Structures are given as C-alpha cells and as structure tokens.
Amino acid sequence: MNIVKKTELYELLEFPVHGDHTGSLVALEKGADFPFEIQRVYYVWGTDAHVTRGHHAHKELEQVIVVTSGSCDFTLDNGRSKETIHLDQPNVGLYIKGNIWRTFTNFSADCVVMVLASLHYDENDYIRDYEQFLKETK
Fold first, then answer.
1. Does the first or last residue of the chain, that is N or C, have fewer Cβ atoms within 10 Å of its Cβ?
2. Distance in angstroms (rounded) separating the CA atoms of residues 138 and 128
3. Which of 21, 55, 56, 120 is catalytic?
4. What is the mean pLDDT of residues 92-112?
5. What letter does residue 15 receive in the DSSP assignment?
6. How far apart are CA 86 and CA 105, in angstroms?
7. What are the pLDDT digits (tens) for 58-83?
8. Closest CA to 68 of 103, 38, 42
C-alpha cells in the first residue's frame, strides 16, 4: 500500500496491482496492506447518477472505499473545509477516519462501490444530522 495523497479529510491509498496478459488482481492482506483490521465489507451498486447517498459521519469508524467498477464522486466535510474526490480506479482506496461528513453521487451506470470498515455495523456510531455533526466538530 502506498499513500498517494494525504489531507486533513482523507488519504488516498494505492494498492499494488499484480497482473499479466490474463488480467489484474489486487490482494489486501491483514496486517500488511491495510490501515486497520477489516470487520465489515459491503457493496453499493445500481445507483442512479443523480442520487446522493451517505449524508452522515461516524464517531469512530474507519473506512476504505474502493470503486471496483465505474466511477463516482465523494464529498468530504470536517466542519471547516470540504473536498470532492473522483474515484474511478479499482486499485485506489479512499481512507476516511471518524467524524468526517460524507456524501457520494455522480454514479456511472456501471459503478460498484466496495466499503471496507473497521467496525461492525453500529447505529450508535452514526451522526445523521448535519447540524449535530457541526456541533460535535467544534
């Protein structure tokens, strides 16, 4: 894993690609290629281009988001600044730590988003109200 960009909102991680004339492969191994121990994996697909998903932050959860097919845009907000990141490479992961508001949109028709999370699902870890999020960031 190589950090290709690091800001106060996120890190972009580039994973090694192994391949030849038969195709490409990215392997993520516990303790070697990842910033945390993966507890949960989920996928998002079949989303209309104009839909906006997310609309939340997490208190503790860390995530690496990989667009395995197609593309979409992630807008990240820490209460002081916002940045939009376009993801369209299956060997690049968007690493987000807790307390970052996130939305994603602009989905291509073939977009598949894979999320690798540091914790099991816990509704208590979510901040779903933007005004509450802003209060907690101060």
1. C
2. 17
3. 56
4. 97
5. -
6. 10
7. 999 999 999 999 999 999 999 999 99
8. 42
Which alpha helices (DSSP H) does the chain contain, by range? 130-137
Q: Any catalytic annotation for residue 50?
A: no
What pLDDT is stored for residue 98 in this prediction?
85
User: pTM (2 decimals)?
Assistant: 0.93
Quick one: what percent of the chain has pLDDT higher than 70? 100
Q: By CB neighbour count within 10 A (0-12 exposed, 13-18 middle, 19+ buried), where does 42 fall?
A: exposed
Helix/strand/coil (H/E/C) assignment for every residue in 20-53: ECCEEECCCCCCCCCCCCCCEEEEEECCCCCCCE
Say what the pLDDT of residue 43 is.
96
Structure tokens belonging to residue 59: 């208190």
Task: Report which residue type is found at 106.
Answer: N
